[in-house]
Amino acid sequence: MRSSTSPCRREPLWRKKEITEKYGISRTPVREAILRLAEEHLVDVFPKSGTFVARIPVAELREAIVARKALEEVCVREATSRATKSQLMELRAIIQREQELADSGDEQAFHAADNAFHAGIASASGYPGIWQMIEKIRLQVERYRRLTLPQKGRMQLIVSEHTAVLDAMEKRRRGTGSREHEQPSQQTADRYRHLPGSLAGLFPL
Fold first, then answer.
1. What is the rounded distance in angstroms from the CA atom of residue 205 to the CA atom of residue 202?
2. Distance between terminal CA atoms of the chain?
3. Which pLDDT tens digit goes with each residue over 140-168?
4. 46 has which bridge partners?
5. Which of 112, 122, 152, 199 is the most buried (most CB within 10 A)?
6. Residue 189 and residue 148 in contact, taking contact as beta carbons nearer than 8 Å
7. pTM of the shown model
8. Does pLDDT of 183 surpass 60?
9. Which of 16-20, 27-31, 113-117 has the largest mean confidence?
């Protein structure tokens, strides 16, 4: 159900009866799931009208980006000195897969590869639990990232950013990797202001 909360959808998402019949479950877990999504600000529930995808709250998006940026900088800094050769090779392979997916335009698979790259850095840092922390605060960031992937050149930009980060890590220049990684996060923090007009209504500015 969470994967259905694209901010581009504004029509009613589900009706409880439809979900219970589709999955063969009672109304109670369905009601609890919808309430959970509402608590996460992913949907808006209007009695007798339906459940609608919520717009992306800009204030919450900014906070999530700042928090994620701080946590990922720690991961990059530690991974720069701790990563093994095999871990660096795995990260390089992920970037190669990202390039292939960007070339083919497979946005869904690219999104998964993008997450795998960040998770790989967290693992190489010796603090894999940080990625779990990031996952708890990244809901609105994930919605935003999915929204921007279709933009021309967006996936290639991510590939370039990841390549720059890994190049710095491989040279073992402590601090360089952190600065390289900071720039993409800052670009993400500002990019929502420049979305095409067709997407502007998805943010309650």
1. 9
2. 26
3. 777 777 777 778 888 999 999 999 999 98
4. 50
5. 122
6. no
7. 0.65
8. no
9. 113-117
Handedness of CA 71, 74, 80, 86 (dihedral sign): negative
Q: Where are the alpha helices (DSSP H) in the chain?
A: 16-23, 27-39, 58-82, 85-104, 107-124, 128-137, 139-148, 154-170, 176-191
> Which amino acid belongs to residue 71?
L
CA distances to 66, 73, 171 from 81, in Å: 24, 13, 10
- Reading the block at residue 154, the tokens are 């967006």
Q: What is the pLDDT of residue 174?
A: 47
How far apart are the C-alpha atoms of 81 and 87, rounded to whole Å? 12
- Location of structure tokens 């701080």: 70
Each residue's pLDDT tens digit, 28-46: 887 888 888 887 777 778 7
Quick one: tokens of 106?
């497979």
Q: For the stretch 22-31, what's the b/e string if a residue is b when 16 or more beta carbons lie within 10 angstroms of its beta carbon?
A: eeeeeeeebe
